[in-house]
Amino acid sequence: MLDDNVKWETKEPRYSLLLVSSRAAKLYDPESKRLEVYPLSSGLAAIIGTPLPRFLRLKESFSIERAEPGKESEQVVLTLTPLNEELAEHIESITVWIDPKIPAATALEMVDPDGERTRITFSKIELDQGLSEEDFELELPDDVLIEYPMGPIPENGGP
């Protein structure tokens, strides 16, 4: 993480790269030769890319309740519910499991308005890797297909 930019690099089981800024999320899959670019509202940008989002920014977009983590767990579990209609169109709730020793999220589960659940578990978490602005620049091969599934990013926010 650098300022409000986040880089998630997944190495296994399949390499992918997610770059998140305050304006867009860019998901690069070199195997399929695709870059998907998604515009982000401020609420989604605050939660999508960071292992431990800034609490004050989250409070602007979500109600936050502490949940019970279960027996013998030292994790902090939070349930986030959208406060505005724009977020509620895409997210019913998000549950985040945080290990206070790291500190970072170790898992999150998003529930969409149709009840579909997506659970992401993080392992081998590495924080503070000394990233620079160059680490957030994408150099794509010429044959990569760039897609905007939710429409273009306004004001020159493309790749």
Keywords:
five-stranded antiparallel sheet; mainly beta; outer membrane lipoprotein receptor (LolB), chain A; five-stranded mixed sheet; 159 residues; globular
Low-confidence spans:
none
Shape from CA axes?
Answer: globular
Terminal residue distance: 18 Å
Helix share of residues?
10-25%
Can you give a write-up of this model?
It is globular and about 50 Å long. The chain has 3 helices and 10 strands. With 159 residues, the protein is mainly β. The protein folds into 2 domains: 1-51 and 128-159; 52-126, outer membrane lipoprotein receptor (LolB), chain A. α1 (42-48) packs across α2. Helices cover 11% and strands 36% of the residues. The model has no long low-confidence stretch (mean pLDDT 79).
Structure described in brief:
By secondary structure, the protein is mainly beta. It has helices at 42-48, 55-61, 85-88; strands spanning 6-10, 16-20, 24-29, 34-39, 62-67, 76-82, 93-99, 104-111, 117-121, 145-147.
List the helices and strands and how they pair.
Blueprint: E1 6-10, E2 16-20, E3 24-29, E4 34-39, H1 42-48, H2 55-61, E5 62-67, E6 76-82, H3 85-88, E7 93-99, E8 104-111, E9 117-121, E10 145-147
Parallel strand pairs: 4-10
Antiparallel strand pairs: 1-2, 2-3, 3-4, 5-6, 6-7, 7-8, 8-9
